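Reviewers asked in the last cycle whether our approach scales beyond single polypeptides. To address this, we selected a multi-component target totalling 843 residues and predicted its structure end to end. The input consisted of the following lines:
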Amino acid sequence: MAAALTDRVWRTSTPATIERDLAALWRDVGAKGPVARAIMSNLVIVRAARVERRAGVSIDAVAGQHPSRVLIIDHEQATSGPCEITGARVGVVTYGPPEARYGVEQVAVRSACTDESLPALIRRLVRGERPISVWWAEDLSNVPLLGSIVDMGRQLVYDSRQWASIAKGVQALEPWQHLDLADVNWRRLAPIRRAVIEAAKIDRSDWRPSDVHIAHRADHESLAWLLVGWLASRLGWNSARPHVEALPDGDRVLSLSIGGGADPVRIRSDGRQVVVQHASRPPSIIGVPHEGEADAVAAELHTLSHDVRLHDALSALHRYFSAA
Amino acid sequence: MSDPASTPVSSIVERLSAGEPSAAAADPVTFVIFGGGGDLAHRKLLPALYNLQLDGLLPPRVAIVGCGRGEMTDDAYRAFAKDGIERFSRRPIEPHAWELFADALFFVSASIGDDRGLAPLGARLDIIEHERGLPGNRIYYLAIPPTLFGPTVKELDRARFINRSAAYPFARVIVEKPIGRDLDSARAINDSIAEAFAESQIYRIDHYLGKETVQNILVLRFANSIFEPLFNARHVDHVQITVAEEEGVGTRAGYYDQAGALRDMVQNHLLQLLALVAMESPRSLHADVIRDQKLDVLLSLRPITGDSVATTIVRAQYVDGFDLGAPACGYLAEQGVAKDSRTETFVALKLFVDNWRWAGVPFFIRTGKRLPKRASEISVHLKRVPPILFNADPSAPLDANVLSIRIQPDEGFALAISSKIPGPRGSVYPVQMDFHYGSTFGGSTPEAYERLLLDVMAGEPTLFMRRDAVEAAWQWVMPILDYWSRATAAPLPTYAAGEWGPLEADRLIESTGRQWRPL
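The resulting structure, written as structure tokens, was:
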């Protein structure tokens, strides 16, 4: 939960005057009372300029919890010619009570550049001593990753829930296994993984893919496949896959049954709790952390580490889809 | 890709659990709070457990059973918990999380010393655990006066609630300070608990150790190469530890008047902070390795005995003064305080850690009630640069570098350094490199109790005090208490409410050529 946003000021800028304009903004903000300039990292947010924007995660809410120098790149890919900056704005957003006010600076650039020329602009704008996280706000199975930008980052944050095509999303990430990948959807899977471990304490047989049936709501297909990838990587499944099917719309986000016999362990998630059921015992209930989308993105940004489990799950999925 | 299937790990649970975060408590547990209807449960424990629920960190199967003398239905207990959460939780009630949490709450009326003993509790726990599929793992939180620790533990043992030998189902007990009012009573309490519980089952809470900034002391020292080489007598001039409270004794007068600042704060919180600052680097993060190193510091404290008590320790009591401009009464006028009380509400002392690392470095400690503000801080004052170059002018000596660790409020740390003022004169000015938890990490910081309760559920004892450390701290404090108990005719310094303690405290540090750091 972030400190409350208290103020936001923006002004139009140009590529050449971004730093100067930001300094002037900080002076204006500082004139209203003490404010700490908070920068944990550089947060590069790439958005496709021509994609119609749905109501997404609030950048201000993320930045309030993970204070960064925020660089918002609304990018329109050019095929040749010099990098054209068609608009730039700078802003300072402040949070918290007067006695503990802190501010986060944001730079928004609208560009029409070639993939190769865009990094030069970003290099100019980042604080070099801070880590760079790239937050790919688009469906990366649909809007291709800009390799030149992604390669600048230590961490790539994305949300596979947006993916129109699971196979294409997995494929798009394949070259970036050396980065710290952070999938917000993987975070959503955590209570379900916990539930599966609970199930394994009940059914201790050696699970085969055919023992597992997964059903998902239409908008959670990627969650189901991440689960498949995790199970496959942990249990050493190679080519055989569990059964995955879409559910009709309803309360259930995802459900699965595990066990080959007549009495399988059933797991059911409604997005607020995950219930593990088996005839032999009362249900186990795992609370789903109460956090919003911005909380989840900020929490992922806080964690600079190589999540081997996610990487392994993606590799397993890549093998599955390549074989198909 | 790693290949878990090819590893010798055979259990499917272990293969699936590999790499999963251990932050969440996994084992089903029944959490029994003795004093479940009391202030601590209301203000701290139930809100902390609720916040763990919000974060999805409680075990998949859990029951929280309040136990107390009064009669209360489960529903009334849920209302009591909800009221505590609404008033004291760092996050508000979220309906679905509350529903889950409330479903796990129960209350049982039982009284130690009653003929029935814990029989009603045992019967109810059996039913709850059966209905919820709980295997009998139990955590007993003794949120009750220390005088009841022994009898309660004895009853638990007599009722066969404690499995001392087997690891599963486990039984753990959490005890709150004060653990005794002197070394003998601390030993007696520890002995009585040890009759039923093994040391590995006992979790002695010092909530200061659950604070994020206190945990960060070890990170600051041992995850950064810049500081640790400086933490020794060669570079450090002195260390100050201040824990200041702005409130008076309030509703705790009955307890506090029997305790005083030395017992209430120094023997536990401040010596624990000192141990973290002064300890040697542990060889691992294993709980007992860290606790061994902290114990070494306590055992290295130079004893303060006899007349040296009078010269190295200042105790004082607040008198009428002001709190934020409004009149504030003196200690003796507080309700519940004996009119002739000589209990100290402030203590300042100079002490030494007699080991190779800290030889000759004074540690100044102060704590008190009705001070100008609530502020806890550790400051490490480095030695001044020699009086040459920029420090050559004796009329304008340079400030020493100071690393200050703010424990509360405005958690963070700062490094005071000297910097050139822009311009042709080459003047030097002290500036701050300042780190604030709030502005750096955003969000709200978990309460100490959240971390500590989660650690007990996970069986992680690092942040809890071991018996030997508690008794070592009492051992060091006892000569001071003994001296004071004899020096009944000695004048007791006073300070006005709203001041930073008595003049004698200033003289204590100023006699060494140093000053208290302004807070």
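The CA atoms of residues 63 and 274 of chain B lie 37 Å apart. We regard this as preliminary and will revisit it once experimental data from Aim 1 are available.
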